[in-house]
Design goal:
about 325 residues, Rossmann fold, Rna Polymerase Sigma Factor, Chain: A, two-stranded parallel sheet, about 20% strand
Length: about 325
């Protein structure tokens, strides 16, 4: 049985853009051991994700999290927050420009402090969720024992900013905004080799469409059925704002107080968060003397490999969650 969504009231929160929120409802789910009885793992969701990390029906990381799995619910307390405005809990945010990833991290941290948690065993997140994990570590450098950013960077690149701008234009100027934005995004989340291996230029049974076309339209329709345009705008905007150095001179100044063991996992074929940038981050962390590891998923599937290549990811992280 899935736990119920829990609400935490955030009061008098000022965003980094200077907007005062008198009250905001932050929701989350708790899995595994009761709070304060076991090591705590926070799992941050990606762009179209939510707090359901392990339900049999829709849990987006259920292969890695659960009974006797990598992040074992018999050993750990797992907390998964909803990014406010992802609409999973009914909260719609239209004024998405008011928020940055820095604000989302600060909201999560305020709730964690309000829950009287003074130590996190690990914070793990993929893509946007990993970027928020980086922000959490910078804001509370002694809180997290192990920081695990997967398929992400600590700063959005020009490539990502440009990609996100096209996504926003699609949302603004097309007659099927969510479907078409998702179809375009799916091409960037995969690689030519991944799609060739999956479809091999085959056609649907009626011969009217290539199977790749049918697949893209299916995913567009599927997202449109379960997601909100306001949420897609917000999440895309958040990804553009990702930059842990925005209030610092450089990366070194931003991270030099972090006491976490930082375990980065990249994907060798990722077009969005390219592995070269993650390797550069490892070099910088090494020079600063910050404990860290670098692991690389080998896959033809591109960015989405962190949601596909579970065996590799589990092998990398098994020593942490042993």
């Amino acid at each position: 049985m899935r736990p119920e969504l829990i609400s935490y009231k955030i009061k008098d929160f000022t965003t980094s853009s200077g907007v005062l929120l008198n009250e905001l409802n932050l929701t989350y789910e708790v899995f595994g051991k009761p709070l304060h009885t076991a090591p705590i793992v926070v799992v941050n969701h990606a762009l179209t994700g939510n707090s359901d990390v392990l339900s049999e029906e829709k849990g987006w990381w259920k292969t890695l999290i659960g009974n006797n799995k990598l992040i074992d619910t018999n050993k750990y307390t797992i907390i998964a927050f909803n990014i406010p405005g992802n609409a999973y809990d009914g909260l719609i945010i239209e004024n998405y420009q008011d928020f940055t990833t820095k604000d989302i991290a600060a909201l999560f941290l305020e709730a964690i402090e309000g829950l009287q948690i003074d130590k996190l065993f690990a914070v793990i997140g993929g893509s946007l969720g990993g970027g928020i994990a980086w922000e959490m570590a910078v804001q509370r450098p002694k809180l997290i024992e192990t920081l695990i950013p997967v398929a992400c960077h600590w700063q959005s690149s020009d490539w990502i900013i440009g990609f996100n701008d096209v996504q926003m234009q699609i949302l603004e100027f097309t007659d099927k905004p969510l479907e078409i934005a998702r179809m375009m995004a799916m091409l960037f989340y995969r690689t030519p080799l991944s799609l060739e291996a999956k479809f091999k230029r085959t056609k649907t049974n009626n011969g009217k469409l290539f199977n790749i076309e049918s697949w893209l339209r299916y995913h567009g329709d599927k997202l449109n059925g379960r997601f909100e345009i306001s949420a897609y705008r917000l999440m895309t905007h958040l990804l553009t704002t990702l930059d842990i150095t925005s209030q610092y001179e450089n990366f070194e100044e931003a991270v030099h107080e972090i006491k976490s063991n930082i375990v980065q996992v990249a994907v060798d074929t990722d077009w969005l968060f390219v592995n070269e940038k993650t390797m550069e981050t490892k070099d910088k962390l090494d020079k600063l003397g910050i404990q860290n590891e670098y692991h690389e998923i080998k896959s033809i599937h591109g960015h989405d490999a962190f949601l596909i290549e579970f065996e590799q990811l589990e092998n990398f992280l098994k020593p942490i969650f042993k």
